[in-house]
Write a sequence for this structure.
C-alpha cells in the first residue's frame, strides 16, 4: 500500500511533530484542524467551525476528493453549550459544506485546545477513489 504525507502549507500547515494529512491507499487521515491563523481565530465558535470545516474540505479537495468522501469526523469543543443542541446557524454551516451527505461525527468537550481562544478542533477521515 502506498503511503503519502502532505503538510498542505497553502491551506493549513501542521506543527513540527506531526503532518496535516496522511493518505494510506485510498484512505485520507486529517490531523486536527482549528481556525488558528484565520480571520476566525479567537472569534465566535461558529465562525471557528466554519473556518475549520473549510480547511478540511480544501485538504480533501487537494487530494482529489470532495466533501462527499469524508466519512468520519470528531469535533472537539471547549464548551459543549456552544455546540449543543445542533440547530440554527450550526446546521446551516454543516449543510453548506456537506449538502446532506453526512459523515459520522462525535462531539467531544475538552478543557482546552492548543491555544487560548481556540474553541473548536476537528479531525477527519476520507475515503478517496483509488490512485
Amino acid at each position: 500500500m502506498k503511503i503519502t504525507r502532505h503538510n498542505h502549507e497553502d491551506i493549513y500547515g501542521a506543527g513540527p511533530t506531526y503532518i496535516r494529512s496522511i493518505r494510506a491507499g485510498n484512505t485520507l487521515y486529517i490531523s486536527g484542524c482549528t481556525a488558528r491563523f484565520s480571520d476566525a481565530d479567537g472569534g465566535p465558535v461558529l465562525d471557528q467551525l466554519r473556518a475549520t470545516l473549510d480547511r478540511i474540505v480544501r485538504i480533501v479537495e487537494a487530494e482529489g476528493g470532495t466533501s462527499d468522501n469524508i466519512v468520519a469526523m470528531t469535533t472537539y469543543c471547549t464548551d459543549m453549550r456552544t455546540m449543543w443542541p445542533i440547530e440554527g446557524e450550526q446546521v446551516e454551516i454543516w449543510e453548506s459544506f456537506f449538502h446532506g451527505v453526512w459523515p459520522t461525527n462525535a462531539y467531544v468537550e475538552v478543557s482546552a485546545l492548543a491555544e487560548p481562544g481556540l474553541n473548536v478542533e476537528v479531525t477527519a477521515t476520507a475515503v478517496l477513489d483509488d490512485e
User: Anything to note?
Assistant: Residues 3-127 form a domain with the 60s Ribosomal Protein L30; Chain: A; fold (CATH 3.30.1330.40).
